[in-house]
Structure formats: C-alpha cells, structure tokens
Specification:
four-stranded mixed beta sheet, 388 residues, 12 helices, binds pyridoxal-5'-phosphate
Length: 388
C-alpha cells in the first residue's frame, strides 16, 4: 500500500480526531525513523516523549520479547513479578511508598484525583473535594482529567464537566488564593508541556509545597510528560527540591508501551484499599518488563548526558534566525518562533525532521539517547527551514 492509499484508508475508517502529519512511521533505529518508502527522518518527538531510548533498542526489545515468551497478560487478580519489581524500583528511586499501575497519563491522573478525594474523605469527611489546578495545564482527555485541565477552549461540548476544579495563575499567590476549606489537593505540571513548555518558577513552587503541607492539602505533580529522565532528573520534582504527595507518570515510562503509574508518598500510602480502584490491563507484565529495562538505565550518567545535550541544543537553537526564545528543561524544549509553528513543523518534516508543536511554539522531545550526529542533522534542518 502506498502512502496516499494509506491516507485514504485512514480517512475512511479512523475517527477524525487527529490532524496528522503527512508521514507514515514504518521502522527505525535510535532517533532515526523511516517511512515505508524508505525516507529517513530525524526524530525530535519520540512519539510525544514516549520512545525515550529511541527505536529498536536492543535491551528493551529483549526484555519485552522475553516476557511475551512467558505470558502476555495476567490481570490484577493474580501476582506477576515484573509489576512488583517495577513498583519496588520506582519506590527505591523516588522515595514513594506505593504505586498504582494503569495504562495512560489520563488514567494515572484519574487515580490521583480519586485518591486525593478519598484521603480527604477518610480524614475530614464529606465536602472537602476541590482540587486547584493551573491555567494552561493539561491533564488528559477523560472527563475528570479534562475538567482538571485549565484551558477553557477544551471545555466545550461534553458538559456537564466534573465538579470541584478551579484554575489558578501559575504562582504562589494564584494557587494559595484559590485554596479554601473545601480544597483537598493542588495538581500541577512543573513544566507545562502541551501549553508551550513553560517551567514553573522554583521559589514559587517551593512556597506552594510549604503552603500545601501546612494545610494538609495534597500536592499532586503530573509528570506524565516531564517524568522518566526527560528533564535531566528521573522526575522533574527532583529539580525543584520538593517532595510531592502524589506523582503521576506515563508517556516515557515503558519506553513505548502503554503504562501509567500513580506514585503515593508517605501521607497517602494507605489511602487506596481493596476495591477502591482497579484496571484490567494496568501494570501489564510486558509493559512492566519494558519499563524495568528503561528505568534501570535512567542513572546519573544518562542524566548528565541529557543535561549536556540540553545545553548544546539550547545554545545552538537560540542562535537560529527567527527563534525568539528557548524554554524548557533537559530534553523538553519549547521554541518561540517568528512564524506559524504548524507550518514550520510541516516544512521540517518535508526535509526529514520530526518536531512537535505546543500552542504556537515548536516543541522538541528527542529520545534521551539521541546521538550527536542526529542532533546536528536536526539542527541543520531547523536552521534551514527557519531561515527561509
Ligand atoms: C500527555 C499528557 C497527559 C495525558 O496522557 P495520555 O497518556 O494521553 O492519557 C496528561 N498529563 C500530561 C502533563 C501530559 O503531557
């Protein structure tokens, strides 16, 4: 099937929810992808921060295939070792006490929202259920996580939305101002991804964390995108010198397989009990085996490499004509540009570079293992496109 036939079939049978880029992803190696016609693309997107060790990573494939050769699924009525091993590793590396596994970012956040409400119910009784999130946040596409998402443009059609969310300016004044007697949690992204790769200010975040602690308001950090080494630490909160009560993650966690995790720290370690929550697929052994092979390798050495690549990219990106600013941390970068981001991304693609957009910014999320040659080739194409 050639590409135009594929496009036709997709249009005929797939619900039209995606404004896809004009390329089919067929295979690849590392941060170099190929379409079915053999054309090569440098990957500055990782399938939205998912393929953190790139494509065709030997160790990851071995782990996944070896688990497939044993059993592909068990469900959570039974024990499986990859799930227990992964939960242990996550806890040991973060200080979290318990993990709930799901399949996606939205589900990880859904679980965090439920747990925050239950924590408060257990301790204070009914009525203390409100959650303060931030303006321009993104927490997912289910009704609760969409309700948590502080973007009015996304609150259309699907009403009524879930009650109890309010949206603060992304600073201490904004957040503390919206916290009242009914507030059980504050939920935030430390680097807002979908809305333009905007990191929150460290001092403001520290003040928010202290404020939450004093009021017994749970601090939920959504690390669906920032997690798993993306920002130069295993989890981004480690850049901020805070310890959240709940951390959610997904995207990069299993290196390309669907897996979400909600990590509970000390306060809410015992909040969820038998029957309170569940998932048929959550913590699937194949996904967990893949995640184990990834998580084991997110070490200090890799994080130093990520920080080095980040500095290199930031330096060279800021020198490109028509780049107005570079924001972000680690290998999660946003470029404010002169021009329309989607048009620029389409033109990059034509020349063999995959980049993402976030609002009207370009968003770069390359695999953490991207090579120097691949980075330079990507920079060359970006430079060419933005100088036109
Ligand atoms: C992508 C994303 C989500 C939603 O994740 P899905 O796996 O698409 O459900 C939630 N929060 C943040 C910060 C994200 O970047």
């Amino acid at each position: 099937m050639n590409f135009s036939e594929l496009k036709e079939k997709d249009k005929e049978y797939i619900a039209g929810t995606y404004n896809r880029f004009a390329v089919d992803i067929y295979e690849g190696n590392g941060a170099t992808l190929r379409s079915a016609d053999g054309k090569e693309y440098i990957d500055f997107g990782s399938g939205i921060a998912v393929n953190i060790f790139g494509v065709n990573d030997r160790e990851w494939k071995d782990a996944v295939i070896s688990q497939i050769n044993k059993v592909q699924h068990a469900c959570n009525l039974y024990y499986t070792q990859p799930q227990a091993d992964l939960a242990e590793l996550l806890c040991k590396k973060t200080g979290a006490k318990k993990v709930f596994f799901s399949n996606s970012g939205a589900e990880a956040n859904e679980c965090a929202i439920k747990a925050a409400r239950k924590y408060s119910f257990d301790k204070y009784g009914e009525g203390r259920y409100e959650i303060v999130t931030l303006k321009n946040s993104f927490h997912g596409r289910t009704l609760a996580t969409l309700s948590a998402t502080g973007q009015p443009a996304m609150h259309k059609y699907f009403m009524p939305f879930v009650d109890g969310f309010s949206y603060a300016d992304p600073n201490f004044e904004g957040v503390s101002g919206l916290c009242g007697k009914k507030t059980c949690a504050v939920m935030l992204e430390l680097v807002q991804g979908e809305s333009g790769v905007n990191p929150l200010d460290k001092e403001q975040v520290k003040k928010i964390a202290e404020f939450c602690k004093k009021r017994d308001i749970l601090l939920i950090v959504d690390e669906v995108q920032t997690g798993n080494g993306r920002t130069g630490k295993l989890y981004c909160y480690q850049n901020y010198g805070i310890i959240p009560d709940i951390v959610t993650t997904a995207k990069g966690l299993a290196g390309g397989l669907p897996l979400g995790a909600t990590m509970f720290f000390e306060k809410c370690e015992h909040t969820l009990n038998a029957g309170d929550h569940g998932s048929t697929f959550g913590g699937n052994p194949v996904a967990c085996a893949g995640a184990l092979s990834i998580l084991k390798r997110i070490d200090d050495q890799l994080m130093l490499e990520v920080q080095g690549k980040s500095d290199y990219l930031k330096t060279h990106l800021s020198r490109i004509k028509n780049v107005l600013s570079v924001t972000g941390m680690g290998l999660m970068l946003g470029l404010e540009i002169n021009g329309n981001a989607r048009e620029v991304a389409d033109r990059c693609l034509k020349k063999g570079l995959i980049v993402l957009t976030a609002k009207n910014k370009l968003r770069l999320l390359p695999p953490l293992t991207i090579g120097k040659g691949e980075i330079d080739e990507g920079l060359r194409i970006l430079n060419e496109v933005l100088s036109e």
